[in-house]
Amino acid sequence: MPSAFSIVRGSIYLAVILWTAIVLGIAAHFNQILVSSDLTRFIPFAIFVCSVSLLFFFILLAFGAFAPVRNPVSTRVELGCLGLAGVLWLALAAFVASSDAESADVECFSSADATQAVEMPGFDTETYQAQYRVLEAFSFFNLFLILGFFITLLFMAVREHRAGKRHVWVTSVTAYPWFYQKGKQNGKGLPPPVTSRSRSKSVARPSRSNTMPTRSNTMQEKPRAERTERVERRSPPMDRTSPPMPRNSPPMGRTSPPMPRGSPPVGRGRSPTRNESPTYVYWIPHKAPEQAHIRDQRNTRDSKYHRNASPRR
Prior knowledge:
The chain is built from five helices and two strands, in the order αααββαα. With 313 residues, it is mainly alpha-helical. A two-stranded antiparallel ribbon has the order 1-2. A hairpin with a 7-residue loop joins strand 1 and strand 2. The radius of gyration is 54 Å and the shape is rod-shaped.
């Protein structure tokens, strides 16, 4: 189903085509009856403007109706056609409004005698002036419609261009989403992308608090405890007939002989790969520390200056 903008666009183009056909019919009627003079210069110009306008709008309307998505006429081409047609209708409306032919009198002469006026049934001065006013009015109607739609389409294209969508100029008017709203989703289209992580529906772990456990909390925790007990792996029972292992025996699985003290530790026994650098381990042998020298602080009795102050008996 076409969008509302495409329907409005098609209605405007149909109205322009209808009024252009009316102007073209009146101009062709004047060209057939009236003799060419300075007052009838607007007639060939009106025929030219109507022919160009019909060509433009028939092409735009046909491509928009039969190939709305694959329309080869882009937005800039359609704007160019509308601008050119608007300028032509502006010139025609100005020419018709400022011409002296609007208030001219019509005199009919026979082909044999060009000096004696005759009466022509169905066409006189009043009929001519009425048809001229109709031509002038529809010229202004086409001018307002074409220039109004041209300004509207140009404003919308500039707005989309300033929003960062520069492909609006190379996209057709019928295929571009002019009034697309992000909030409205089409039922046949894809769902919107996920922007937030959805919360898990699993059972939340109860928070540890200082409150006493109630009966409901105990009932909720029981299935979880049973499930945990089922997952636990049990070690195989030990063979009671095997002799007990001594306390100081080396652990099982080590078959390498004991290394002497002072030798560097042995690695895994593999050379480093291409992306690894070798690791060097230096072994510093243990050396017992030297004994501290204790200075003798005792006073000798034979010293001259140090006398024993203890009482004599």
